[in-house]
Structures are given as C-alpha cells and as structure tokens.
Amino acid sequence: MFQKIKLILAGLDSPLKSFYNCRQGKEENMETYHRRFEAAAATIIMSKGNLSEHERLTKYETKKGIGKSGVTDIEKLVEDKFLGAAFLQNADPGRFTNLWRELKNSMLKGHDDYPKSLRAAYEPPL
What is the pTM of this model? Predict the structure, then answer.
C-alpha cells in the first residue's frame, strides 16, 4: 500500500509508459540519462511490474542452455539483458546509431555482443 501511495504522490500512474519513453536527449550526458533510466526501471519494479517477460529473449537464452537451474535464474538473466539493450536502444541516436547497427550486424553473424546487463551497457570494459 505504501508503495502505491509513493507512486501516486510521484505522479507516476503509468510506470511502463514512463520507462519506454525514457530517451536520452541530444545534449544530455550519459550519467544523467543513466540515472533517469535506472529510476524508470526501479519504478516498474516497485510497482510490481515485470521486466523479464520477453518471450523471444527467454527462448533464445533457454536454447543457449542458460538458466536451466531454475526459472528465477532465467528471469533475472532476461531482465538484465533486456535493460542493457533497452538502455542502448534509447540512447541518443545521433551518438549511438553506429553502435546499435554494429550490434545488430554482429547478431546476424551469430555473435551475441549485446550487453549482458545495464551496468555492462553503461560502463565501458576495462
């Protein structure tokens, strides 16, 4: 009940809509966009929404043999991968169109180079 009151007070009557409309602005830096994106995802989770109900991604990951130890594992894996891909998809197209194109082309060649999580999408590899 307390969580619902917090959502109403925040003016967030449609967390999924807010999440899917969370896009990086042309002049917005990555840190600010990342904070907004994380907040939108957290709002969905807080409102009992589900970010792991992606049938095609779940089938793909299951086919690869990941998540066989239990439903919870595959759901977390799918949620993490979805958030990483969604973060990049909604990043400023002027700056990240080439990266998105490279990821799609890589997948067509049989290489899954998409980020494994939101953290992996935001933080460059060491």
Answer: 0.75
